[in-house]
Amino acid sequence: MRNELVQKLVEHQGEYVSGERLSESLGVSRTAIWKQIEVLKKQGYQIESAPKKGYQLMGRPDGLQEHDIHLYLHTKRLGQSVSYYATVPSTQAVAHELAQAGEPEGHVVVADEQTSGRGRFGRNWSSAAGTSISMSLLLRPALAPENVPPLTLVAAVAVTRAIEKVTDLEADIKWPNDILLNGKKIVGILTEMQSEPGLANVVILGIGINANQTDEELIHDDRNQSTSLATEKGELINRAELLANILEEFEWLYDAYLKNGFKEIKLLWEARSISIGLNLEAKSIHGTVTGRSVGISEDGALLVEDAQGITHKVYSADVQSKN
Ligand code: BTN
């Protein structure tokens, strides 16, 4: 009911809406409305109450709770239910547990802060409180395990499209899972699966975004310089709006991938990619390939041509440019 209440207050932003009207439209008592208003105030909503007039929303926190996200959400399946944590070790871990407990596809785990965020190759991922976005989306795609890795690329296209929609910033994709602005990392994607032979039952798509951090709050490591959307844009961004847009973009791209494969999405991916035509070194569990990236395959592998002219298909690797 709190979601609907926030929705109503937002619809009437700039004017008072009476407790009676709210209680009628939401089908609950005026006391229940008052109690929920008190909860919202504690969460940072600025709500004025005036006798005989009712309630007026004056300001909202930049929250990531279900009701914040639902204000902007226009999806059919993804994100209809959200588990929100003010702080959690890793949204990825929670999503895996929920999947095992039978939570259906589309559920999203969101946190304002992660204390042990996971990156690729067992690295840490830092998610600062109140300024980053940490989300894990639960999917049940019924794909063969080898068809799961391109979902990272599908997600990268969805995230760059959503960033452009919400901030007007044109982000670049670095194969397979980094999103950069002006050469600095703003988003990391981690795709994990629970599979049985021949079938990926569950995919947990983890997305970490540097949204509103200042430069001092960002952790720069020697592999990657980082930046945040706010630093690049010069103004704070609405995290819930961005998250909802990512789900909306991902929903149609995911459906297209399940129906038609990667072929069409590959064109969208290539248009945003900065990973083609580079001299690079790709380190994976299968070894290191050095050469020039000449494209991606229709199953999402990076094609690297070595000095002997042999083209290698690299499915998952840590890629460093060698120019
Ligand atoms: C990477 O670039 O190495 C991937 C980083 C992925 C981080 C996200 S934040 C939400 C989700 N929860 C985690 O613990 N990790 C992913």
Automatic annotation (TrEMBL):
Top EC category: ligase
Catalytic activity: biotin + L-lysyl-[protein] + ATP = N(6)-biotinyl-L-lysyl-[protein] + AMP + diphosphate + H(+)
Gene Ontology molecular functions: biotin--[biotin carboxyl-carrier protein] ligase activity
InterPro entries per the UniProt record, alphabetical: aa-tRNA-synth_II/BPL/LPL (IPR045864), Bifunct_BirA (IPR030855), Biotin_CoA_COase_ligase (IPR004408), BPL_C (IPR003142), BPL_LPL_catalytic (IPR004143), HTH_11 (IPR013196), WH-like_DNA-bd_sf (IPR036388), WH_DNA-bd_sf (IPR036390)
Domain BPL/LPL catalytic: 63-258
EC number: 6.3.4.15
Signal peptide start and end residues: none
Protein name, entry field: Bifunctional ligase/repressor BirA
